[in-house]
Amino acid sequence: xxxxxxxxxxxxxxxxxxxxxxxxxxxxxxxxxxxxxxxxxxxxxxxxxxxxxxxxxxxxxxxxxxxxxxxxxxxxxxxxxxxxxxxxxxxxxxxxxxxxxxxxxxxxxxxxxxxxxxxxxxxxxxxxxxxxxxxxxxxxxxxxxxxxxxxxxxxxxxxxxxxxxxxxxxxxxxxxxxxxxxxxxxxxxxxxxxxxxxxxxxxxxxxxxxxx
Amino acid sequence: xxxxxxxxxxxxxxxxxxxxxxxxxxxxxxxxxxxxxxxxxxxxxxxxxxxxxxxxxxxxxxxxxxxxxxxxxxxxxxxxxxxxxxxxxxxxxxxxxxxxxxxxxxxxxxxxxxxxxxxxxxxxxxxxxxxxxxxxxxxxxxxxxxxxxxxxxxxxxxxxxxxxxxxxxxxxxxxxxxxxxxxxxxxxxxxxxxxxxxxxxxxxxx
Lengths: 212, 206
Hints:
Number of helices of chain B: 10
Largest sheet of chain A: 2 strands, antiparallel
Low-confidence stretches of chain A: none
Structural class of chain A: alpha+beta
Structural class of chain B: mainly alpha
Oligomer: heterodimer
Number of strands of chain A: 4
Number of strands of chain B: 0
Order of helices and strands of chain A: EHEEEHH
Strand order of the largest sheet of chain A: 1-2
Low-confidence stretches of chain B: 1-22
Mean pLDDT of chain A: 93
Order of helices and strands of chain B: HHHHHHHHHH
Helix content of chain A: 10-25%
Strand content of chain A: 5-15%
Distance between the termini of chain A: 44 Å
Number of helices of chain A: 3
Shape of chain B: elongated
Radius of gyration of chain A: 23 Å
């Protein structure tokens, strides 16, 4: 379900899409796992067996995939002390959610709960509190691997220019996902392809001009 | 919800997502079926007393009824044994502890007898005590109730992923339908579409 709302009437920027799961899937490992959490089920025996038959396929779940606005508190750097077994400094990650993200996740939770109720369903899990970030996932746990050699107009805070060309090494072009400065809620492959295409045109042009 | 519950739920979600993405029979079930086809069955995880208790538990949890066999008749216990044989150390320990807890609880209630030595009404009484959601049972019974969640889940997974279990649920996916000739003509007419364009582009014909 793609993003559908107008940010001018919301308390957070950008948006999210919804992934929906549920239905009469092939019963396999984990089928109806945690059935004790369903309302009114039997604990064991013939009644429980009927509960499995009754409840299979009746659950629906939602995942929100939101866009995070990059902030200066989230970055990685070489660790000044910790080294790996070859003596090379390891990466150290810093992560900070802002109100943008927690408000967005609160909006997801409210929306998903409203959807379940509108369908005549019953919501299982209690609403996570503000202290729990409204259930926001651990930073980095649901991602596409993007960034690392950011695109930008200045060599001061970016590695690549608008053509995925390194500011400091003119004959180096980086045409994977490393150029991204943020991550939309969308899958990135087509954007990577478009950026690579644009970079390729630029390479051809510079080559013709004798600039590379 | 305990931290462990959450971890397990996350795990199931990840499993379900991977399964949804790739379809077909999940690797653990494939490996289990290969092992079952390999020859005479021998326990990989359960000790002999645990195996006897597990068989009793499985058929109490999912007994034979008009629509399907008892859990032990579907390979659910062998499935549990296989899954646990490749489980993490702490999960294996949790199961050994669970069986011990069950025998201790039976012993406490019924004059030192272990679960398998109890009479049917006695076993039923213990299950009634530990089968509700762990949060709903008294503190003293909670370790047993938390373990029983695992037991019930793995018995159900074994039962409902077996052929009789799949038939019991009425799952009809994954079945080749050689009679399929596309959407019925009256539906195509109603929607104002036809397969002609498709056939022109992609060759059509059967």
